[in-house]
Amino acid sequence: DSRALHALASNAGYSFQLLRTVIEVNGLQARRHLQRLKEELGGSFEGRSVALLGMTFKAGTDDMREAPSTIIASRLLAEGAEVRCWDPMAQPGPGQPWDSTTRHAVPLEAMAGADAAVIVTEWPELRDAPWAEAHTAMRTPLLLDGRNLLDGAAMAQLGFTYMSVGRPTVRP
Fold first, then answer.
1. pTM score of the predicted model
2. Which helix (H) or strand (E) segment is 162 a member of?
3. 43 domain residue, yes or no
4. CB atoms within 10 A of CB 119
5. Residue 72 to residue 27: CA distance in whole angstroms
6. Three-state SS sequence of 84-141
7. Which of 55, 65, 76, 105 could disulfide-link 81, Cβ–Cβ 3.0 to 4.6 Å?
8. pLDDT over 90 (residue 108)
9. CA quadruple 92, 94, 100, 103: dihedral positive or negative?
10. CATH number of the domain where residue 101 is located
11. Residue 80's domain spans which residues?
């Protein structure tokens, strides 16, 4: 939406510097959170498995345009991670990064054996996911909640290291 607004402003001859800066900062946020996740995993994604929970740019749509998951998946793959994905509606086209990821029918399948899970899209199904089972199924119960969808204290009680946006990491 911000890119569309920027394009409209540009087409009207208006240089919307503030909006351009917002777009740049938004792009940096995904990289910043991935850096936090990498540090939590010992400094490398090489040989790690990461589950991306949600691929579309927002819940309730199959729209992949401008989806943060594309940036995240590309970065993880470039740094040697295996990327496992779940989304109930996403229809990614052929090409990178999606040709190099595996899709799963339910979130628990995507998290099985994973070193970390990242909530990218705030699908309601994730609120009610079997998190206790996911804790047991994951190799490393590390969760980065990019949408602040879940309660950090509750996730820590289940045994997760819970990272979120704008809040401190909560440990079991």
1. 0.86
2. strand 161-164
3. yes
4. 23
5. 10
6. EEECCCCCCCCCCCHHHCEEECCHHHHHCCCCEEEECCCCHHHHCCCHHHHHHHCCCC
7. 76
8. yes
9. positive
10. 3.40.50.720
11. 31-164
Q: Residue 112: name the closest of 136, 82, 132 by CA.
A: 136
Task: With respect to residue 62, please indicate whether it lies within any of the assigned structural domains.
Answer: yes
The reported pLDDT for the residue numbered 96 is: 85
Are the C-beta atoms of residues 130 and 111 closer than 8 Å to each other?
A: no
Residue 19 domain flag: no
In the numeric block, the tokens 């998951």 are attached to: 69
Residue 102 has φ and ψ, to the nearest 5°, of -110, 140
- Is residue 49 within 8 A of residue 41, CB to CB? The reply is no
* Cβ 88 vs Cβ 118: under 8 Å: no
**Amino acid 93: pLDDT:** 83
Q: For residue 12, is it within any domain?
A: no
Please state, in angstroms and rounded to a whole number, the distance separating the CA atoms of residues 165 and 168.
8
Contact of 167 with 148, CB cutoff 8 Å? yes
Structure confidence by residue, pLDDT tens digits, 37-83 = 999 999 999 999 999 999 999 999 999 988 899 999 999 999 999 99
Q: What is residue 44's predicted lDDT score, i.e. its pLDDT? A: 97
Pick the residue with more confidence: 160 or 15? 160
What is each CA distance from 115 to 5, 61, 90, 121, in whole angstroms? 38, 28, 23, 19
